Amino acid sequence: MLKQYSDQKINEFRPASGWMMNEGGGLHSALETKYAAIYCQDRVVTCQLHLNMCRNRHTSSVFIGNDDKEQKIVELRKKINDMVHSTTVNQYNSQYNEVKRFIMENNKSSLLKWLQWWDKRRNHVMDAYKDVSAPNTNLAEVSRASTIHCGGSKLNLIQTAVFDISDCFKYAQAVKGYFSGVVKAGSGPSYQRKQIILEQKANSRAENLLHELDDQFKGGKAPQLPTTSTFMAEPSSSHRADKSSDKDKRPIGKTRTNSSKEFNIRIEKAKAMGDYKCIEVNIHSPIQATVSLVSPQGETYAVYFDQKSTSSCPFSNLQGTEKLRKMACKHRIFILICLDYS
């Protein structure tokens, strides 16, 4: 089909700008098998948003229990951000050493594995190393995108075709408008604004390189070229630094040693439910059951246990914060740890 519709009569799908994907070893192995390792090393990048999310997760967990937790988190995140967006090799090496020094000074050596994990993949994500022409949008996320429903239900075949053709014309015009700057896609910058941002980054990078070359010339030093990483992910490796099957290769963040304040409140309320009685137990399968409780006032509550338990109590049905919806209600805790089944 590519050969039929392409003006260049291409025989295979080989993007000129490269690929954007996560760090899952299976994806990289498949590309290497299809296009050879050299093409993959030079043309593969990963989404910097994933790195930022990973950075936030690790920096938040590793400082649990510190009095100056918030200050340390902000400081470390800024240093990591400066490292990622360094435009030259010297700047990257300097920022990398700064992040490493900060980690060691704060006795958080578990983060060194995380730092080394990303440094091995610097060709994929670090501005100083990744291909400047590589894609900057994760097209793999398109499966999660949604389109606006144009209306129409219970249509016959002719009406469905009319709606379908109408959508095609609308999307075609929207694409033209996006590239001309008339239409903006989503909540991000327009196409023209993106081009301006890319030009500004290129100018900034060129200016920094010229300053470094000038300093090296005056100091009698040879220019330092990027040392590209020859790292290739193993086919079975995970896309996250903390998901390796080998415990020695993944960072160890500090874990919670006591229950949260909200959970302790639920525990105390469950222990105070001594007068509640179990009136019915329905076992649907070895892993599914419904337990019905009655309060001293005659109110009944049904608790359903499966891979995720649910309850008919007002707390469980509360449409409040995400934190409250994830918290187990006292009725579920009462059944699990307080109910006398004798």
Automatic annotation (TrEMBL):
Positions of the UniProt region annotated as Disordered: 217-260
Domain of life per record: Eukaryota
Polar residues bias: start-end ranges: 225-236
Record's compositionally biased regions (Basic and acidic residues): 237-251
Organism listed in the record: Mytilus coruscus
Protein name: Uncharacterized protein
Lineage: Eukaryota, Metazoa, Spiralia, Lophotrochozoa, Mollusca
